[in-house]
Amino acid sequence: MAIKKSELYSSLWAGCDELRDGMDASQYKDYVLSLLFIKYVSDKYAGEPYAPIAIPEGADFKAMVALKGRADIGDQINKKIIAPLAAANNQLNQADFPDFNDGAKLGDGKEKVDRLTKLIAIFENPALDFGKNRAEDDDILGDAYEYLMRHFATESGKSKGQFYTPAEVSRVIAQVIGIRQAITGPDTTVYDPTCGSGSLLLKVGDEAATKVSLYGQEKDQATSGLARLNMILHDNPTAQIEQGNTLTTPKFKEHGLIKHFDYVVANPPFSDKAWSTGLSPHNDPHERFSFGVPPAKQGDYAYLLHIIRSLKSTGTGACILPHGVLFRGNAEADIRKALVRRGYIKGIIGLPPNLFYGTGIPACIIVLDKKDAAARKGIFMIDANQGFIKDGAKNRLRAQDIHKIVDTFTRALEIPGYSRSVSFDEIEQKNDYNLNLPRYIDSQKAEDRQDIEAHLKGGIPEADVAALTPYWQVCPGLKASLFKLNRPGYLDLAVEKATIKSTIFDHPEFTAFIGTMAQHFADWRGDTAAKLKALRPGLHPKEVIGWLSEGLLAHYSGRSLIDKYDVYQHLMNYWTEAMQDDCYAIAADGWKATPQRLTEADKKGKLKDKGWTCDLVPKRYLVERYFAAEQAAIDTLIADLGATSAALAELEEEQGGEDGAFADLEKITAKAVKDRVKEIRGDKEAVEEGIALKQWLLLSDKKSDLKKKLKEAETVLDAAAYAKYPKLSEDEVKALVVDDKWLARIDADLHSEMDRISQNLTRRIHELAERYETPMPDLIARVTALETKVEGHLHAMGFEW
């Protein structure tokens, strides 16, 4: 049975993190990812005669496993594994790997041996078998690497997390530059001049319809080595990664000048204060600063100008930069003006703050396009600063945020408060080439204004009710049911505040709307169920979620009151939570629901049976479909047991006082109660006490009997359910998984979205009603009456106010 991807990644991280033992994550990652690399190339290429990566005999992961426990394990890994591997492949250097014999980082003696031995053992997990996997075919490697890199970046801290561009931002860039729609091939070139570990470069390459040629340069030696390994891990062994300072020593040149590329992307260091060290920008041999020289202590435009110079005349690029590049003055203002006039800036996408690991400041994506520069009439702007979710100490773009940004940009959709196309005339004449997004897009939520007349005279402002027009368009009669005229421009509630919710929920127009939406989902569900049940072993889960999510998004486009991106996010959340693992299980094993026994070792190492589980078809779905009557009987027993327990507790509370039946009992137990009953038998003064005690015994016996029956019934049902799994046909498994598990959950999530819509309306109306419920004169009259009352009390007590 295939291991769940989520469990594999979390256990991999947990094991690695446990062994780190104080080492900085920015260093420890090099050891972990190097081992992941050696495991991958060993599984995939060992023994292959024409493999793109040569694996010398005795220099694979099996040879590394054989070194476990040896006193010289670190030295042997360096000499017998890494050195031969690097020597056999031109695209690798031994410097790309960390020193596995470094006592300062790994400890000395037994500490180093134990640490490396345990680290190797983590990668011996049978589920980490890359022999039949390819990165583009939904293998576990790409996601496992992404998972580890994200966690290492989080743990590395502010100053050392810049080797990794958040995957969500990389996806946005990869899609807005248009490589997916372009005709590509091996001659198509993609370049990242500050590639870090290569995550952004790879995302762009993955977005292309065919394999393209990847080029990257990285200043930090260890990180550039990591990028080279990353390229091979993601099935791009021919990618060219060079080490060096891109600005002072660009490595990719043609005829002595900078090489030109089809696509250039980058996430350079923000506001690099040392960008010009070793460089003479006024005499740059590569002619990168013809639009102007950036300030000596502000290197953002230096990287942007390098990107522009590196683009072909038909090239497209994108660069992540701090918001300051949009509005800072002096030399940067002159460069910005020149770039706008030339038409190179196609778009600007403002991102939420605190997305990146190296800084918490908000950033933007500058999208460049040389091909249509001459004909460009303006710049398309998006301010997406409000679209994110908190994820620990950082913010993160959700799937719906990414999709909305990409849809809006690629279709040039103008959305109030979010995006618009801004003409060059407006940029030049009204704003003097200042591109600060708030000048063009007001993305802030409008303040909830207080109506002074309504506070003075009462009544709900009709303007506030009119702001709820989307609801009245769907349910035009609902407004008349909720409001009545007070005076021109002001309304009163036509119902009691306590009945606002029921008035909305029970209104025939709202009921009809809910019914329409339920049918709308049912239409999608019917078509989708057949497609999902047609999935076969070997499926590609990423393709499944691709057509599934896009189909759902399209199905809900243009629907009133409901945001299609909210619907999309519900599906993506459930995909991450469970559906993805299910699809990988089906890809590996087919439609097989096989329960697994759960065991736990005791202190002596003896395994104890702890029940069973089935990830693809959990027990509750099987029971609901095939053992509903048995479950109903159990539910009845549970309800009876709860009622009996409550009656016992109530009786004990009633009779627990000083004069109660249990007052003389040190502890209320069956034996103590029975003994007390015998003790007071025949005592006429203890008749009521005896009745209470006997009632307690009856309830206690009933409780014990119910517990016994419940345990027996649950045992019988558990055995019957376990025995049912092997008898399930493939069609029955499909029905359980697709109908009862997947689509039922999505249905419930979307139903909750409808509840949220109605609750928002209820909450807003209730808020308006309370705000203007008591006019100012009434408040003054109340205060006056209370003052008079207080004065009267004071006077009666002999005090003067």
From TrEMBL:
Its EC number is 2.1.1.72. Coiled coil: none annotated. It is an enzyme of class 2 (transferase). One of its GO terms (molecular function) is DNA binding. Keywords: Methyltransferase, Restriction system, S-adenosyl-L-methionine, Transferase. Residues 10-123 form the N6 adenine-specific DNA methyltransferase N-terminal domain. GO terms for biological process: DNA restriction-modification system; methylation. It catalyses: a 2'-deoxyadenosine in DNA + S-adenosyl-L-methionine = an N(6)-methyl-2'-deoxyadenosine in DNA + S-adenosyl-L-homocysteine + H(+). InterPro entries: D12N6_MeTrfase_N, DNA_Adenine_Mtase, DNA_methylase_A-5, DNA_methylase_N6_adenine_CS, Restrct_endonuc_T1M, SAM-dependent_MTases_sf, T1MK-like_N_sf. Residues 137-448 form the DNA methylase adenine-specific domain. Belongs to the N(4)/N(6)-methyltransferase family. This is site-specific DNA-methyltransferase (adenine-specific). It comes from Oecophyllibacter saccharovorans.
